[in-house]
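User: My collaborator and I are trying to settle a disagreement about how two of our proteins should look. Neither of us wants to argue from intuition anymore, so we agreed to look at predicted structures for both before our next call. Could you fold the first one, then the second, and keep them clearly separated?

Assistant: That sounds like a sensible way to settle it. I'll keep them separate. The first protein:
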Amino acid sequence: MAKHKRPDSLTTLQRAIGTRISWARELVMPNQSECARLLGVDASTLNKIERGDRAPSVFLIAALSNRLRVSTDFLLKGVLNGRTDEELALRLAALHPELVLQRQDMAPNTDRNTSSDTPDPPKRPDEEIH
Protein backbone atom coordinates (compact mmCIF):
# COMPACT_ATOMS: atom_id res chain seq x y z
CA MET A 1 0.00 0.00 0.00
CA ALA A 2 1.25 3.49 -0.84
CA LYS A 3 2.46 5.72 1.96
CA HIS A 4 1.23 8.89 0.25
CA LYS A 5 -2.13 9.62 -1.32
CA ARG A 6 -1.98 10.08 -5.08
CA PRO A 7 -2.55 13.71 -6.13
CA ASP A 8 -6.04 14.40 -7.46
CA SER A 9 -4.54 15.78 -10.67
CA LEU A 10 -3.07 12.36 -11.51
CA THR A 11 -6.38 10.63 -10.78
CA THR A 12 -8.16 13.13 -13.04
CA LEU A 13 -5.60 12.57 -15.80
CA GLN A 14 -5.92 8.79 -15.48
CA ARG A 15 -9.72 9.02 -15.83
CA ALA A 16 -9.42 11.34 -18.84
CA ILE A 17 -7.03 8.93 -20.58
CA GLY A 18 -9.43 6.06 -19.89
CA THR A 19 -12.34 8.04 -21.31
CA ARG A 20 -10.45 8.85 -24.51
CA ILE A 21 -9.41 5.21 -24.90
CA SER A 22 -13.05 4.20 -24.51
CA TRP A 23 -14.25 6.78 -27.06
CA ALA A 24 -11.74 5.69 -29.69
CA ARG A 25 -12.27 1.99 -29.04
CA GLU A 26 -16.06 2.29 -29.32
CA LEU A 27 -15.72 3.86 -32.78
CA VAL A 28 -13.24 1.32 -34.09
CA MET A 29 -14.02 -1.81 -32.10
CA PRO A 30 -17.31 -1.79 -30.13
CA ASN A 31 -16.58 -5.12 -28.42
CA GLN A 32 -14.34 -4.37 -25.42
CA SER A 33 -13.51 -8.05 -24.82
CA GLU A 34 -12.39 -8.55 -28.41
CA CYS A 35 -10.23 -5.43 -28.23
CA ALA A 36 -8.62 -6.67 -25.01
CA ARG A 37 -7.94 -10.06 -26.60
CA LEU A 38 -6.27 -8.45 -29.62
CA LEU A 39 -4.14 -6.31 -27.31
CA GLY A 40 -3.13 -9.31 -25.22
CA VAL A 41 -4.64 -8.03 -21.97
CA ASP A 42 -7.46 -9.34 -19.83
CA ALA A 43 -10.88 -7.81 -20.51
CA SER A 44 -11.14 -6.72 -16.87
CA THR A 45 -7.84 -4.84 -17.23
CA LEU A 46 -9.09 -2.88 -20.24
CA ASN A 47 -12.36 -2.22 -18.43
CA LYS A 48 -10.51 -0.81 -15.39
CA ILE A 49 -8.35 1.37 -17.64
CA GLU A 50 -11.37 2.76 -19.49
CA ARG A 51 -13.13 3.51 -16.18
CA GLY A 52 -10.01 5.29 -14.92
CA ASP A 53 -9.42 2.81 -12.10
CA ARG A 54 -6.07 1.68 -13.52
CA ALA A 55 -3.32 3.48 -15.42
CA PRO A 56 -2.34 2.02 -18.79
CA SER A 57 1.30 1.18 -19.37
CA VAL A 58 3.26 3.06 -21.99
CA PHE A 59 3.36 -0.17 -24.00
CA LEU A 60 -0.42 -0.49 -23.91
CA ILE A 61 -0.80 3.17 -24.96
CA ALA A 62 1.44 2.44 -27.97
CA ALA A 63 -0.53 -0.71 -28.84
CA LEU A 64 -3.87 1.09 -28.46
CA SER A 65 -2.66 3.96 -30.61
CA ASN A 66 -1.70 1.55 -33.35
CA ARG A 67 -4.78 -0.68 -33.06
CA LEU A 68 -7.28 2.20 -32.83
CA ARG A 69 -5.48 4.33 -35.44
CA VAL A 70 -5.20 7.41 -33.22
CA SER A 71 -2.17 9.34 -32.07
CA THR A 72 -0.71 8.96 -28.63
CA ASP A 73 -1.30 12.74 -28.32
CA PHE A 74 -5.01 12.03 -28.46
CA LEU A 75 -4.91 9.21 -25.93
CA LEU A 76 -2.65 11.05 -23.47
CA LYS A 77 -3.57 14.70 -23.94
CA GLY A 78 -6.88 14.78 -25.82
CA VAL A 79 -5.39 16.63 -28.77
CA LEU A 80 -6.59 15.47 -32.18
CA ASN A 81 -4.11 15.80 -35.02
CA GLY A 82 -5.82 15.95 -38.39
CA ARG A 83 -2.92 14.56 -40.40
CA THR A 84 -2.38 11.70 -37.96
CA ASP A 85 -5.88 10.90 -36.78
CA GLU A 86 -7.66 11.82 -40.03
CA GLU A 87 -11.26 10.55 -40.27
CA LEU A 88 -11.38 9.30 -36.69
CA ALA A 89 -10.47 12.79 -35.45
CA LEU A 90 -13.48 14.29 -37.19
CA ARG A 91 -15.80 11.52 -35.99
CA LEU A 92 -14.58 11.91 -32.40
CA ALA A 93 -14.84 15.70 -32.53
CA ALA A 94 -18.42 15.43 -33.80
CA LEU A 95 -19.38 13.11 -30.95
CA HIS A 96 -17.31 14.88 -28.27
CA PRO A 97 -17.04 18.64 -28.96
CA GLU A 98 -14.92 19.11 -25.83
CA LEU A 99 -11.97 17.65 -27.75
CA VAL A 100 -9.36 20.00 -29.21
CA LEU A 101 -8.66 20.01 -32.95
CA GLN A 102 -5.30 21.49 -33.86
CA ARG A 103 -6.02 23.94 -36.68
CA GLN A 104 -2.54 23.84 -38.20
CA ASP A 105 -2.66 20.05 -38.36
CA MET A 106 -5.95 20.09 -40.24
CA ALA A 107 -4.62 22.37 -43.00
CA PRO A 108 -2.45 21.14 -45.86
CA ASN A 109 1.25 21.97 -45.70
CA THR A 110 1.32 25.76 -45.83
CA ASP A 111 3.84 28.33 -44.78
CA ARG A 112 3.04 29.58 -41.27
CA ASN A 113 3.65 33.19 -42.35
CA THR A 114 0.86 33.25 -44.93
CA SER A 115 -2.30 35.22 -44.36
CA SER A 116 -4.35 31.99 -44.43
CA ASP A 117 -3.10 31.20 -40.91
CA THR A 118 -4.70 34.30 -39.47
CA PRO A 119 -8.46 34.33 -39.00
CA ASP A 120 -10.58 36.83 -40.88
CA PRO A 121 -11.64 39.78 -38.75
CA PRO A 122 -15.21 39.53 -37.50
CA LYS A 123 -17.81 41.19 -39.73
CA ARG A 124 -19.88 44.03 -38.46
CA PRO A 125 -23.66 43.52 -38.61
CA ASP A 126 -23.98 46.12 -41.38
CA GLU A 127 -21.58 44.06 -43.57
CA GLU A 128 -23.81 40.97 -43.70
CA ILE A 129 -24.53 39.59 -47.14
CA HIS A 130 -28.22 39.22 -47.95
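The second protein, kept apart from the first:
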Amino acid sequence: MENIVNNVEEYLLSREERILQVRNLVETLRAAEEIAKQGYLITSSELADLMDINPSAVTSRGDHWSWRNWVVSRVRREGNQILWQLERVD
Protein backbone atom coordinates (compact mmCIF):
# COMPACT_ATOMS: atom_id res chain seq x y z
CA MET A 1 0.00 0.00 0.00
CA GLU A 2 2.85 2.40 0.81
CA ASN A 3 4.29 1.92 -2.70
CA ILE A 4 0.95 2.91 -4.23
CA VAL A 5 0.83 6.08 -2.11
CA ASN A 6 4.41 6.96 -3.10
CA ASN A 7 3.64 6.36 -6.78
CA VAL A 8 0.54 8.58 -6.60
CA GLU A 9 2.55 11.33 -4.86
CA GLU A 10 5.27 11.09 -7.53
CA TYR A 11 2.65 11.24 -10.29
CA LEU A 12 0.95 14.27 -8.75
CA LEU A 13 4.24 16.06 -8.23
CA SER A 14 5.32 15.45 -11.80
CA ARG A 15 1.88 16.58 -13.01
CA GLU A 16 2.22 19.78 -10.97
CA GLU A 17 5.69 20.29 -12.40
CA ARG A 18 4.34 19.80 -15.93
CA ILE A 19 1.58 22.33 -15.32
CA LEU A 20 4.14 24.79 -13.96
CA GLN A 21 6.25 24.28 -17.08
CA VAL A 22 3.23 25.04 -19.29
CA ARG A 23 2.47 28.17 -17.27
CA ASN A 24 6.10 29.29 -17.62
CA LEU A 25 5.88 28.65 -21.36
CA VAL A 26 2.74 30.78 -21.66
CA GLU A 27 4.46 33.57 -19.71
CA THR A 28 7.46 33.35 -22.06
CA LEU A 29 5.22 33.49 -25.13
CA ARG A 30 3.34 36.49 -23.72
CA ALA A 31 6.64 38.27 -23.13
CA ALA A 32 7.73 37.52 -26.70
CA GLU A 33 4.39 38.82 -27.99
CA GLU A 34 4.76 42.05 -26.00
CA ILE A 35 8.32 42.54 -27.22
CA ALA A 36 7.19 42.08 -30.82
CA LYS A 37 4.04 44.20 -30.45
CA GLN A 38 5.91 47.12 -28.89
CA GLY A 39 8.81 46.87 -31.35
CA TYR A 40 11.34 46.51 -28.56
CA LEU A 41 14.89 45.56 -29.50
CA ILE A 42 16.57 42.99 -27.27
CA THR A 43 20.16 41.86 -26.84
CA SER A 44 21.48 38.40 -27.68
CA SER A 45 21.62 37.46 -24.00
CA GLU A 46 18.04 38.65 -23.41
CA LEU A 47 16.88 36.68 -26.44
CA ALA A 48 18.77 33.62 -25.20
CA ASP A 49 17.08 33.96 -21.81
CA LEU A 50 13.69 34.23 -23.51
CA MET A 51 14.36 31.16 -25.63
CA ASP A 52 16.12 29.30 -22.79
CA ILE A 53 19.23 28.62 -24.87
CA ASN A 54 22.92 29.48 -24.70
CA PRO A 55 23.68 33.05 -25.92
CA SER A 56 26.19 31.72 -28.46
CA ALA A 57 23.37 29.69 -30.02
CA VAL A 58 21.52 32.93 -30.80
CA THR A 59 24.31 34.49 -32.82
CA SER A 60 25.20 31.23 -34.58
CA ARG A 61 21.72 31.06 -36.16
CA GLY A 62 22.43 33.93 -38.53
CA ASP A 63 20.73 37.27 -39.11
CA HIS A 64 17.18 36.13 -39.83
CA TRP A 65 15.44 32.98 -38.56
CA SER A 66 12.21 31.65 -37.09
CA TRP A 67 11.40 30.80 -33.50
CA ARG A 68 7.92 29.50 -32.68
CA ASN A 69 5.49 32.21 -33.88
CA TRP A 70 8.11 34.87 -34.54
CA VAL A 71 10.73 35.80 -37.06
CA VAL A 72 13.89 36.93 -35.32
CA SER A 73 16.00 39.51 -37.15
CA ARG A 74 19.35 41.01 -36.34
CA VAL A 75 18.75 44.75 -36.47
CA ARG A 76 22.02 46.41 -35.55
CA ARG A 77 25.01 46.48 -33.26
CA GLU A 78 25.42 48.97 -30.44
CA GLY A 79 28.91 48.78 -29.02
CA ASN A 80 29.52 45.15 -28.24
CA GLN A 81 25.80 44.26 -28.21
CA ILE A 82 23.84 42.81 -31.11
CA LEU A 83 20.20 43.92 -31.06
CA TRP A 84 17.38 41.70 -32.28
CA GLN A 85 13.76 42.30 -33.22
CA LEU A 86 10.85 39.85 -33.03
CA GLU A 87 8.08 39.98 -35.61
CA ARG A 88 4.91 37.92 -35.18
CA VAL A 89 4.15 35.43 -37.93
CA ASP A 90 0.68 33.92 -38.14
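Some points you might bring to the call about the second protein. The chain is about 55% helix and 25% strand. The two ends are 51 Å apart (CA to CA).
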